[in-house]
Amino acid sequence: MGKQLKFKILFVASEAAPFVKVGGLGEVMYSLPKALRDLGHDARVMIPKYATIDTKKHKMTLEAEGLRLGTSETDPQGILISNVLKNEIDGNISYFLENMEYYEKRANVYGYGDDTIRWALLSKGVLEFLKISNWKPDIIVACDWQAGFIPNYLHIEYENDPVLKNITTLFSIHNLKYQGMFDTNFVNEMDYDAGQQPIPVLPNERILKLNGMKRGIFYADVINTVSPTYSKEILSKESGENLDKLLNERKGRLFGILNGIDTDSFNPETDPDLDINYNHKTTDKRKQNKLALQKQFGIEINENKFVAGIVSRMDEQKGFDILIQMIDKFMQNLDSQLVIVGEGDSKYRLFFEDLKKKYPDKVGIHFSFDFRLPRLIFAGADVVLLPSKFEPCGLVQMEAMRYGAVPIVRKVGGLADSVQDFNPETGKGTGFVFEKFDPFSLTIAMVRAYQIYHQKNLWKKIIKNAINQDFSWKRSAFEYVKLFEMAIRLHKEKIK
Prior knowledge:
Elements: E1 8-12, H1 24-38, E2 42-48, E3 61-67, E4 82-89, E5 92-98, H2 100-104, H3 115-132, E6 139-143, H4 149-155, E7 168-173, H5 212-219, E8 222-225, H6 228-233, H7 244-249, E9 254-256, H8 286-297, E10 306-311, H9 320-333, E11 336-341, H10 346-358, E12 363-366, H11 373-380, E13 383-386, H12 396-403, E14 406-410, H13 413-418, E15 432-434, H14 439-453, H15 456-467, H16 473-495
Parallel strand pairs: 1-2, 1-6, 2-5, 6-7, 7-8, 8-9, 10-11, 10-13, 11-12, 13-14, 14-15
Antiparallel strand pairs: 3-4, 4-5
Helix pairs in contact: 1-16, 3-4, 4-5, 8-11, 9-10, 9-14, 11-12
Pathway: Glycan biosynthesis; glycogen biosynthesis
Function: Synthesizes alpha-1,4-glucan chains using ADP-glucose.
Binding site for ADP-alpha-D-glucose: 21
């Protein structure tokens, strides 16, 4: 068996921890490159230089200046001219595309009417930078629709470039639902993007109508999603978000690799935010964290209560519509408590505020981001609820199991790939899984969990099963390396 090749990999995304993190993508852009570096690969990241990045904490040096990303005719004021900065810590290198107009004047990462132009600018900036950089990646991992223009540019505008034509592209789908600055279900014929026309010269407003997700899928050498089940689900009309036909055409290049979690950060044995630390041999200590959790949320302090936790963005995708149809009756009829941490739709917040008024000793709520509270829930709650309508991967169920909180999940996407339904007869399984997206199915799963919770030997067994799962990024990184090998081979065959 030959020696494994070491790859040079550039991840391109709209966010990356520790510099800027809005959602799960930011965490993946920190953890996956780190895991690949641990395997000996040269993995780097490139994102925009946002005004919110703390440059005192994250020191940067100028790597390239004066990149002209538009023409003198389309950009007479030179607002598209950009620089690239570099942050290097212990040999770990990250790049930042600096542009005053499109990044540094903006208070947020997302949410602007010209976002598509901002992401096309990033894609163009990455490629123009690589043309002059001394470091050339073997493969670019372009993440979600924001970076979907990179495979497009490489295939058309830079097809004959002597430097860039050799770079392989992997398009990584973290959530198929988001494809551009429009609702994919309401695109009129005039605005429909077939995905095959060249990208207009920046900053033409026609770019605002482009579908970055479609173009990434269409042009990339290989496509991956963040769980095996999700990669199959999106081939169906039901879950394909109007791209199922294209995905089926390219399904020979479509793969799914389950995300991992940072097991160093999420570690109940060392986590400083817990009331008491523990491991798989000392899970009885979780009771003390339950008492701390109850105190934190102002509900009745009682170690025998069945505590369900929610750590989630509150929206339709996460299954809140079926949850709010059944949770009141569950609380009313079973001796249980509920704690919630999350941001999102006001209609759900209002529901839980009313539920809190109705059951002040049983319901605790916190409707803003907090680094510490999710970990308290994972360490102190008995179960976590994830009744998602769809879920490309999901990290909460893995983080919860790492701490011994038992997940109640719908059998969909990454939830199906990471949680095994518990069988009391065999003692195998890590959670409670239901299939139909309706409040009755969720109720049955929660009642099953409630009943087994009161059978202490069984409950200890399921906690042990959950906490011993391996969701480290090292496992996922090995799978990505195999995919990189395939993608590079396919690209070489294409350019022969």
